[in-house]
């Protein structure tokens, strides 16, 4: 690929105007334009002629000849410029595009190529443009990993739309939370938005289980299970953040914190701690 640099114009005495030189491909392209216009006329006003078997064949031949003219005029693929690619494999992207150097640029079916690109697991959307005379421009928007979804006893990588991105080789995404529940990916964006209001606490959440398709249980990095309510989970999360900030509740010897009741806090402690609390005078 070439890097084209526009140099600043030097301050010189104004010269006599020169005749503008057209690119070499412009004049042959004028002939090609006539042929393409003829094709458009066949498709528009002369539709009734297509009842003859010879007309489609003639039109296809005419189109092929027109594309050959554009190719001879220099309108061929020399570069594929891709923007937005991060995780999408470059080799796979080019293979799916199915474009070769020297192909007629105007002969590329950009809509079909776009659909093929959007079938790639990492590609959420794609835009393809022909940029005369030699470049096929591709801009893709990649899917953003949201979480690992436990499905059929296996973890898969999903995005915020619940679309499965990867089924294998997910070790690099082990830092993402694990979602459990059939509808968990669909409901997770709202939950994660709530959790982000307390980022330090959010970073300690290892898994989220959707219970009864209505509310969430959170598993923290130290094994503590936190139960959020169906109504106002954001308020309960803010309450937990305050408890952690002021009392370090997650550092206590507890196994579960139930936030489903707005007027009280229910805490379940470890069996050894419960036994010690029942018998404070005995050394266990």
UniProtKB/TrEMBL annotation:
Signal peptide stretch: none
Parts of the chain that traverse the membrane: none
Membrane-related topology note: Single-pass type II membrane protein
GO cellular component, one term: cell division site
Predominant place of localization: membrane
POTRA domain mapped to chain residues: 75-143
This protein's record includes keyword NADP: no
Keywords (A to Z) from UniProt: Cell cycle, Cell division, Cell inner membrane, Cell membrane, Membrane, Transmembrane, Transmembrane helix
InterPro entries on file: Cell_div_FtsQ/DivIB_C, FtsQ, FtsQ_C_sf, POTRA, POTRA_FtsQ_type
Family note: Belongs to the FtsQ/DivIB family. FtsQ subfamily.
Physiological role: Essential cell division protein.
Name of this protein: Cell division protein FtsQ
Organism: Oceanibaculum indicum P24
Taxonomic lineage from the root: Bacteria, Pseudomonadati, Pseudomonadota, Alphaproteobacteria, Rhodospirillales
């Amino acid at each position: 690929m070439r890097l084209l640099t526009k140099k600043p114009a030097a301050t010189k005495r104004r010269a006599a105007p020169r005749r503008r030189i057209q690119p070499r491909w412009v004049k042959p392209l004028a002939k090609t334009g006539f042929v393409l216009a003829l094709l458009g006329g066949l498709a528009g006003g002369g539709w009734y002629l297509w009842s003859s078997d010879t007309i489609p064949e003639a039109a296809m031949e005419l189109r092929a000849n027109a594309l050959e003219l554009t190719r001879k005029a220099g309108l061929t693929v020399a570069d594929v410029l891709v923007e937005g690619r991060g995780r999408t494999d470059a080799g796979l992207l080019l293979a799916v595009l199915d474009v070769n150097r020297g192909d007629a640029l105007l002969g590329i079916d950009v809509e079909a190529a776009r659909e093929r690109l959007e079938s790639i697991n990492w590609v959420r959307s794609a835009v393809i443009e022909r940029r005369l005379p030699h470049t096929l421009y591709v801009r893709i928007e990649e899917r953003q990993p949201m979480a690992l979804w436990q499905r059929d006893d296996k973890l898969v990588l999903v995005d915020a739309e619940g679309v499965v991105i990867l089924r294998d080789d997910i070790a690099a995404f082990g830092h993402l939370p694990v979602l459990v529940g059939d509808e968990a990916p669909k409901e997770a964006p709202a939950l994660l938005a709530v959790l982000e209001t307390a980022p330090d606490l959010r970073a300690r959440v290892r898994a989220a289980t959707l219970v009864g398709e209505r509310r969430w249980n959170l598993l923290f990095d130290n094994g503590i299970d936190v139960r959020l309510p169906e109504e106002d989970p954001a308020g309960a999360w803010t309450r937990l953040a305050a408890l952690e900030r002021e009392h370090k509740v997650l550092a206590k010897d507890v196994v579960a914190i139930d936030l489903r009741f707005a007027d009280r806090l229910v805490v379940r402690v470890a069996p050894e701690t419960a036994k010690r609390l029942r018998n404070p005078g005995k050394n266990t």
